[in-house]
Amino acid sequence: MAKLKNNFIDSIGTKYKNISAHINRTGLGSFLKTKIYDHYIGFRFKMAGIHYYIPAAHETVSSVTQFNDKFKTLPSSFYSVKEALTLILLPHHAISLYDFGCGSGWVLNYGMLLGFRQVAGIEIDKAVMENATYNCNMLKRKGYPTPYTIELGDAATATIPEGTNVIYLYNPFGLETMEKVSANIISYALKSAADVYIIYCLPTYQQFFEKEESCEKIYERFYKYKTLVELSVFKIAGS
């Protein structure tokens, strides 16, 4: 009983610290808008019967996956994706999205909910990829018709599907893999007939896009005290 009580107290303490840190980074208003919207979307997904694999707080990167320099699977904020989409001059039904390091399918599912033309992603962790496939299947059964493709493989050698016009990344890799992934994205975009947008959350290595002349940064948002970039959106004009 004492152990359960201590675990409960520790859990409450961890949640309080996380909430305090979030408010300190983004401000109270942003925190509330994000939480309310994310809970709303999360509730809709829960009602659809889908669930996400989220690593426990005590898990390290190495205990979650031993693949190259892939970072620990973390959930994206639906509110952040929503804000980024307002900067992209495409109606939802015209968006073909590709998610590098798609995890359990958070962003793919969100695209299905919004009625994207198609969604696709790549994930190197088999268990996580299977969870993403399950979630997309559940949404399809619930009447969301957006076609989806999820590939098990290494993002550094991924083939971006033809017609992709929005690429999403949530700080998924370390320096070595991100250099290869960014080169792949830029190469694809320069050959594309249409404009390609890149939504990069927690853009640790955005310098790979910034140094490309054809890659225009159309948006950048900082955390509250402007010490860390929270979100960047890039555009590469079609050929």
Task: Tell me what you see in this structure.
With 239 residues, this protein is α/β, with parallel strands linked by helices. 43% of the residues lie in helices and 18% in strands. It contains eight helices and seven strands; from the N terminus they run H-H-H-H-E-H-E-H-E-E-H-E-H-E-E. It has helices at 2-26, 28-47, 61-64, 78-85, 106-114, 126-141, 175-191, 207-210; strands at residues 96-100, 118-123, 148-152, 166-170, 196-201, 215-222, 229-236. It has a seven-stranded mixed sheet with strand order 3-2-1-4-5-7-6, with helices on both faces. Strand 2, helix 6 and strand 3 (148-152) form a beta-alpha-beta unit. Helix 1 crosses helix 2 (28-47) and helix 5 runs parallel beside helix 6. The longest helix is centred in the first third of the chain and has 25 residues, at 2-26.
Helix and strand run: HHHHEHEHEEHEHEE
Looking at the structure, what is the overall shape?
globular
Helix and strand composition category:
alpha/beta
Mean of residue pLDDT? 84
**What is the rounded distance between the termini?**
66 Å
**Percentage of residues in strands:** 15-25%
In which order are the strands of the major sheet placed? 3-2-1-4-5-7-6
Number of helices: 8
Poorly predicted residue ranges:
13-19, 57-67
Reported for the largest beta sheet, the result is:
7 strands, mixed
Calculate Rg over CA atoms. 18 Å
Q: Roughly what percent helix?
A: 40-55%
Number of strands: 7
